[in-house]
Amino acid sequence: MATITATITVSLTTPTRRSLTNSVNLRYLLFNSHSKFATLQRSFKSHKTRIAVSSSLSIDVPVKTAPPSFLDRIDTTFLHFAKYHGLGNDFVLIDNRDIIEPKISPEKAVQLCDRNFGVGADGVIFVLPGFNGTDYTMRIFNSDGSEPEMCGNGVRCFVKFVCQLENLHGRHSFTIHTGAGLIVPEILEDGNVRVDMGEPILKASDVPTKLPPNKDHAVVKSELDVDGIMWNVTCVSMGNPHCVTFSGKGFENLFVDELKLAEIGPNFEHHEMFPARTNTEFVQVLSDSHLKIRVWERGAGETLACGTGACATVVAAVLEGCAERNCTVDLPGGPLQIEWREKDNHVYMTGSAELVYYGSLPL
Ligand SMILES: N[C@H](CCC[C@H](N)C(=O)O)C(=O)O
Which major enzyme category is it (predicted)? Predict the structure, then answer.
């Protein structure tokens, strides 16, 4: 049996200047960092702890005014942002509704996206005022500072952020002006976002690619030599360029988990056949409505998900005859539901977008 006696005599004073004089039996006495209790005599008897408190308690706790929160600082020296992700494809989102030019430069975006020296993200997205009657404009800088035309996961994060900014709840649809034209996302009751991504662009010169068209104006399952390996590729633009491959010479199916993307991805991205560089999707066909892909993104490297890439993949799969128009596309970060709707030729993407945290940047 151990007896521990500790005696500390202090008095507790709160703003209502209350002091407590009493002896009470407490089973446990919780300390907290703002006040101190006690004279306490603690004895342990047969595993039952009784603590008798007998004292007059009083302590002068100076009531300090909290320093101003970084959120209260004058905005001219701080830039507030929100961090979102769409299936692990993550972005810094900036409220840019008050001016028509992005508040930070591509160079600053590169610093921000650095996962060691910055916030860490695949890109920075700006919520800008609308254009020609649209609700908003979206612009995005990749983590290498380049500016793509469109971002599928990013636009889902964009509308979730807008709802935070405008304090909107429930179903909402927006018109967004982007480098890929008009994009119409809708927040669904379950919190997922369905996006009308517009029509795919198949004309080779508009993707753009220098590969010669081999199916109408499009490049479908055409051979591309990448470092001596002949891949079969289909080229699709969703406003941004995509090179989609399902197979190659000597291998009819891909097992995407076995691919060394860090080695082969850059050679596709910078291939001379893609004058604007390209995003590349490596596709494993699980069924005619279920595809598994990994993506090497232009300007960002391998990402956990790529919304425009998933859209381009379903279009390419239909053109190559290996999938239906409505597919589940599994990406490392999670699934997207993609439909290339025959009646309007638009591609629809449905998936999640999540807020991770808010932050502030010294400008
Ligand atoms: N890196 C892409 C832009 C982001 C696309 C991707 N994150 C998506 O969700 O669509 C490009 O340069 O075309």
Answer: isomerase
